[in-house]
Amino acid sequence: MTASTVAIIGAGAVGAGTAWYLAKHGHQVRLIDPKLDQPINRSGTLPGTTASLGVLMGHVFRRSSGRAWRLRQHSMTLWPEWVAELSSQEHPLKLNTPLIQLASSEAEATLMKQLAEQRQHLGLELISPNSNPCMGRSWPNTQHGGLISHQDGYLDPILLQKCLRAALQEQGVQQIQEPVVSLERSSSVKQKQWRLQLAGGTNLHQEAVVICAALGSEALLEPLGHSLPMTPVLGQVLDLELISDQHNWSGWPAVLVSHGINLIPHGPNQIWIGATLEPGVQPIASHLKAMQHLEGDAPDWLESATVKNQWHGLRARPVERPAPLLEKLEPGLIVATGHYRNGVLLAPASAAWVKEQLTHETRS
């Protein structure tokens, strides 16, 4: 395969992961994002990856066929390899497992029973109603039972980004901390086919461009005649501090999901609770409180917890198209964005898909 010069716009989990993966396979890569010079931490309004909890729900996905299922399965195969390559002594990245999903109704419990029967080979098991094997803090309502997935869980997205930044440097990826103000087809046959104009006035010429810019993608694509509308959906997280007692997290999974809300213990008397549930761009205080109540199923220890920190971020959800948007729009112009709630989960499969598109181009 002939190596190509590739510009990747957007440095979230998908963009940075794709940049690293392509560089590893011999491409000359530039990663462009104005936020590349900002520290990676959690506070206030954040980019999608930083705001996320990095939950991996690959095997508990309800469908068993189609593109979405195949992408999840591919990513779940690739993630252990990525973690092994990216983890370092300074940034020890790991897959935190398992994940438990509690059923909120008899109908949901029936669906979970079917999944457990079909996917025993993927590490899925049914949890009996009213079971609570915790030696420490009790789970939310387990009246209808649930599903345990021994391979699903979460990756710390802060650690992931730090690992990727270090790996990008090792691979010699140029990281450009400027916005792209325009993307144009090159008019000269002597130049590479895409011209990117940066906010500082610099022009870059590339053989291929991969757009991973989430909600910022539309403004770059519309002047080229491509309409890929996306809508913002708000994700919110509370970092809660619990009343110190003799209870602990013994018997807890890495991730517990109740009513679509993720609970992740991350230290003594500390738990993250988060969800991507709201349309729009501004957080609503009453929604945060409802999230902490778990629709009436929250245990007393969760109700009495105090908010230590909170943050939110926007997810890009495609309009009238399934997420994510993985499309080759024209020669050398590729879109890998609009992952909605699954940017971290689908980063490896998305990167592999982009590499495949570039490989096909160099062969043709």
Keywords for this structure?
364 residues; alpha/beta; FAD/NAD(P)-binding domain; D-Amino Acid Oxidase, Chain A, domain 2; 2 domains; 9-stranded mixed β-sheet; 6-stranded mixed β-sheet; 9 helices
State the shape. Answer: elongated
β content, as a range? 25-35%
Kindly report the spatial arrangement of strands forming the biggest sheet: 3-18-14-17-16-15-5-7-6
> Helix share of residues?
25-40%
The number of domains: 2
List low-pLDDT spans. none
What is the first-to-last residue Cα distance?
Answer: 11 Å
Mean pLDDT across all residues, rounded? 93
Number of strands: 20
Let me know the largest β-sheet.
9 strands, mixed
CATH class of the largest domain, named: Alpha Beta
Tell me the Rg in angstroms.
21 Å
Outline:
The chain is an alpha/beta fold and 364 residues long. It has nine helices and 20 strands. The protein has two domains: 5-79 and 157-229 and 320-363, 3-Layer(bba) Sandwich (FAD/NAD(P)-binding domain), CATH 3.50.50; 99-150 and 231-318, D-Amino Acid Oxidase, Chain A, domain 2 (2-Layer Sandwich), CATH 3.30.9.10.
Overview of the molecule:
With 364 residues, the protein is α/β, with parallel strands linked by helices. The chain folds into two domains: 5-79 and 157-229 and 320-363, FAD/NAD(P)-binding domain; 99-150 and 231-318, D-Amino Acid Oxidase, subunit A, domain 2 (D-Amino Acid Oxidase, Chain A, domain 2, 2-Layer Sandwich). The chain is 28% helix and 30% strand. It contains nine helices and 20 strands. The strands form four sheets. Strands 3-18-14-17-16-15-5-7-6 form a nine-stranded mixed beta sheet, sandwiched between helices. Strands 9-2-1-13-20-19 form a six-stranded mixed beta sheet, covered by helices on one side. It has a three-stranded antiparallel beta sheet with strand order 10-11-12. Helix 1 crosses helix 9. The longest helix has 21 residues, at 343-363. The radius of gyration is 21 Å and the shape is elongated. The model has no long low-confidence stretch (mean pLDDT 93).
